[in-house]
Amino acid sequence: MSFRLTYATMFNPPEAMHERFEAAMARVSADLGRRHELFINGEDRPAANHAQRRSPIDSALSLGEFALANAGDVDSAMRAAHAAFPAWRALPVAERARLMRKVGDLMEERVYDIAAALTLEVGKNRMEALGEAQETVDFFHYYADDYEQNAGYDRPLPNDPLEGTVSRNRSVMRPHGVWVVIAPFNFPFALAGGPVAAALVTGNTVVVKAASDTPWSGRLLADCIRDAGLPPGVFNYVSGSGREVGEALAQHPLTAGITFTGSVGVGMQLLRQMAGGAYPRPCIAEMGGKNPCIVTENADLERAATGIVRSAFGMGGQKCSALSRLYVHDSVADQLIGLLRGKIEAIRIGDARSRENWLGPVINDSAYGNYAHYMQQLQSDGATVVAGGRQLRDGDLARGYYVEPVLAEADLAHPLWKQEMFLPIVMLHRYRDREHAMRLANDTDMGLTAGFYGGSDEVPWFQDRIEAGVTYANRPQGATTGAWPGYQPFGGWKGSGSTGKAIASFYYLQQYLREQSRTVVE
């Protein structure tokens, strides 16, 4: 197919894409229930304990039994990665890049089966799942290309200005060692695969931990890397709780660096931990967002409503980039609310395997309970719920974690303006002064993504003043969501990110390297 799938193009795919997904879902569903082990030092490693995982689509649907690593498994994985590091680091740039492309090529061959597994494991609709699988393919290809194009960051420098002596200088970027990747549940394949690709191509070896809710995705990533023929120990996969496995990885003496995606609390803890000890070690932390969108009186309201709904409610709002705070000029607020209400009521909610359903379940019982808690908090604190607000318990939906998207108009004093809910809930405030709207948009400790709808002459004002790492103006594909490798770098400011460098940007790979200055006198 000539169609190129990205998060921006996924709203009108060719029919063949649906046919291939349906076939993949049948294949994957027929193989459910198997036991999945850890992957350490090039081999499957049986664990002492396993946990059965069920789909958030239907709690009666068993996905399989997944290994639970313990401290001994973590130590084995770290030691395997440490032993493999010297030989992996010594490989030529072109050879590591070739292997990364091979991983990406294998993923692309399996992209429909991986997407089917993502739908079953996470509950995202088929286009979101296909987008995540293809995005991970693009990460492996993009980082291989980037590393080669930069010649492995090996730069000749001018010779020292000495008479009678040749003193040659170079700047060389070198890998750190064993890199730990801790992935979240919402993009378990892409936000494991992307950092893994970056760490590996730059010469580090890797131990990756999947989120507790999504161990299958991590195992599928391990299968692709195993089948690409990487040497034993270069990549290792463990799964289990953050409290046990995540802590063991962070505290291990062989951990040279960490990439973490998740909550602010855990991210800040890891940053402090990696900064302590005998010397500071790198920690790339992406820690969520409380993302705003400003709509002025000059906006195309139909375009705004489309982008708002897609960003606020896509994948149940379980994205760090999801729209959470909406600031609308008073003169157009009622009209926009009417458009939003209509689009929200038209959303098909249900089994994410079905093509007609755009919104599947939230991830687990905890998220389901949080939704009820936030709804009670909104209503008890005086917010007006414009649309949504119910947990859906009728028929087959009673066996999953299904909720309605929520649009609520709330006083600025409401505490939920400051809290990342990670659910399909967006709060609205009417404003009269544009500068006041910008102050409200920036009034957060986080700064991941931000959206804007207004006149073309207003866009520079928005871009110059907004405090966010990723910005979108007048984008119907998504007010605050939809970054793709090679098109939009993705990274946050303030509490949303620890480095100021974005995923798939010009500056990302250097974070996995450290500089060495080399002078040789001949």
TrEMBL record:
InterPro entries: Ald_DH/histidinol_DH, Ald_DH_C, Ald_DH_CS_CYS, Ald_DH_CS_GLU, Ald_DH_N, Aldehyde_DH_dom, Proline_metab_enzyme. It catalyses: L-glutamate 5-semialdehyde + NAD(+) + H2O = L-glutamate + NADH + 2 H(+). Keywords: NAD, Oxidoreductase. The keyword Metal-binding does not apply. Pathway: Amino-acid degradation; L-proline degradation into L-glutamate; L-glutamate from L-proline: step 2/2. Pfam families: Aldedh. Its EC number is 1.2.1.88. It is an enzyme of class 1 (oxidoreductase). Residues 53-514 form the Aldehyde dehydrogenase domain. Belongs to the aldehyde dehydrogenase family. This is L-glutamate gamma-semialdehyde dehydrogenase. It comes from Lysobacter arenosi. The lineage of its organism: Bacteria, Pseudomonadati, Pseudomonadota, Gammaproteobacteria, Lysobacterales.
